[in-house]
Amino acid sequence: MRLASLHARLRWLIIVVLVAVLLPLGVMGFRRTITEVDELSDGRLAQSARTLQVLIEHAGLNALRGHDAAGMLVPIEHPKTGSLKGQSHTHESEVGFQVFDQSGHVALATANMAALPPPREGDGNLQDVQQGGYLWRVFTLPDKVDGVVIRTAERYDSRHDITHAVWLEHSLPLLIGLPLLALLVGWAIRRGLRPLESLARVLSAREPGNREPVVLDDAPLELQPVLTALNGQLVRLEDALERERRFSADVAHELRTPLASAMINIESAMTTTDPIEVHATLASAQHGVAALARRIEQLLALARLESRAASGQRATIDLVAIAMDVVEELAPVIADSGVELSVARHASQVIIQGYEAAIAALLRNLLENALRHVPTGGQVQLSIEQGEHDALVNVIDNGPGIPAERRASVFARFHREAGGRGDGYGLGLSIVQRAAQLHGATIDLLDSPYGQGLQVHVAIPL
User: Which of 89, 243, 363, 382 is buried most deeply by CB count within 10 Å?
Assistant: First the structure.
């Protein structure tokens, strides 16, 4: 089933609403008009009867009455077909009157009402009477002074003509106007929906990877929130795609070498029969697999940071508590390194709004980086304090340090400084930088106060 377009839906909804409003109004207006016409016609009958009453009072019934037994008959002109337009119909045969004397005989009457029976006692002033195949509206006026009864009547044919005219007057505008209105409504809706058509064309012509915001000239106010939300969604989508591309590239780049090395060592162990050589090659393969696991862990940490940033779910976290958890987690690494680690806490709690996993990754990689580059017997200090607007984290060591001219490049992915020990892969400081970006933090690489080494200063907004 084909879904109707927005244009068709709006058009039919507007037409249905208009019909639902105009049709009852037309029916109410029609009924009100017919009621007014009936009241006006009844008043005209009453006025005609009272006019006859005045004539009889002044001239006398005998002066008007004929000499025949049936009373004087007033001739009327019956309908005839004329040669000229407008002469094919007359309303004389549709109206008439009767005058009854004191004895109840017809004293005066029109020819079309001569056979109408006299009124009966108890009849109201206005009543409907069937006579000669027609239905008459009759008004009866008793004259107590002269003792006569005056009746004026009108056939319903005349009223029906008025009813038909009123019906045409009320229905023709709807019959003619609604189709025209439908065309005009369709034109107005098409014109009103042009910004949506323009938006569809812009989106269809948009190239993948385009980060430029979608802009429509003279976009209506109702479409501005849609454009804002759409642009935000496109940016988030491009960021997600970029993360996927970056992660895929990282995986392809970093996992290829350790996998190849592990496979070579395993194949060598399978082809040799010397137990010592088998043990050595398997140990090398184990080392390669361990390196592979470490690289995968680092890459997944980067992916988690990116996904947490996309979700936007910040929480209230204690920086001191996270730092102590990270130190406890790294306790075996610290023991094996032979490096003295000290923790300086200037407050029992430092509360910030952020991502717990990202802050933990930042602290873990700063400490691991320092432990990896400080020789045995060296010192590393972790300092956490709360400033006026920022939480301050300092990791200080007395290792070889980094020359000032190379400090800007150490945050690049897979960048490794010479002289480090252990199995670093150049991703640690890249993770630190990304975690800082998620919190709007700043990172400064400074000279160590120990005289040699490096001080990493991180300021995280509270």
Answer: 363
Beta-bridge mates of residue 137:
128, 154
By residue count, the chain amounts to: 462
Locate 378 and state its tokens: 């060296």
Whether this model's pTM surpasses 0.85: no
Residue 168 vs residues 19, 165, 175, 271, 337: alpha-carbon distances, Å: 17, 5, 10, 105, 102
Q: Where in the chain is the domain with CATH 1.10.287.130?
A: 218-312
CATH 3.40.50 correct for 6-76+92-178: no
Buried b (16+ CB within 10 A) or exposed e, 410-431: bbebeeebeeeeeebbbbbbbb
Residue 374 is given by DSSP the state S
What is 314-462's CATH topology?
Heat Shock Protein 90 (3.30.565)
Angle (CA) 251 256 260, round 5°: 150
Among candidates 291, 371, 366, which has minimal Cα distance to 335? Answer: 371
CATH 3.30.565.10 domain position(s) in the chain = 314-462
Long-range contacts of 22-29 (CB under 8 A, 24+ apart): 22/174, 23/174, 26/170, 26/171, 26/174, 29/170
- Give CA–CA dist 126/49, Å, rounded: 12
Distance separating alpha carbons of residues 325 and 404, to the nearest angstrom? 32
pLDDT tens, the chain, 462 aa long: 345 677 777 777 887 887 788 778 877 877 887 788 888 888 888 888 888 888 887 777 666 655 444 545 665 555 554 444 444 445 566 788 888 887 777 788 887 777 777 787 767 788 888 877 788 888 988 887 777 888 888 887 777 777 777 777 767 777 777 778 778 887 887 777 777 777 778 878 877 777 778 877 777 777 778 888 888 888 878 777 776 776 666 566 556 656 777 787 788 888 888 888 888 888 877 877 876 776 677 667 666 666 655 555 678 889 999 999 888 877 877 887 888 888 888 888 889 988 877 788 788 888 888 888 888 888 999 999 988 889 999 999 888 877 777 777 676 655 555 544 444 445 667 778 878 888 889 888 888 888 888 889 999 998
Query: Is the CB of residue 52 less than 8 Å from the CB of residue 152?
Result: yes
**Exposed/middle/buried for 449, CB within 10 Å: 0-12, 13-18, 19+?**
exposed
CATH 3.30.450 in the chain, residue ranges: 6-76+92-178
Q: How many whole angstroms separate alpha carbon 384 and alpha carbon 458?
A: 10
As a CATH number, domain 218-312 is 1.10.287.130
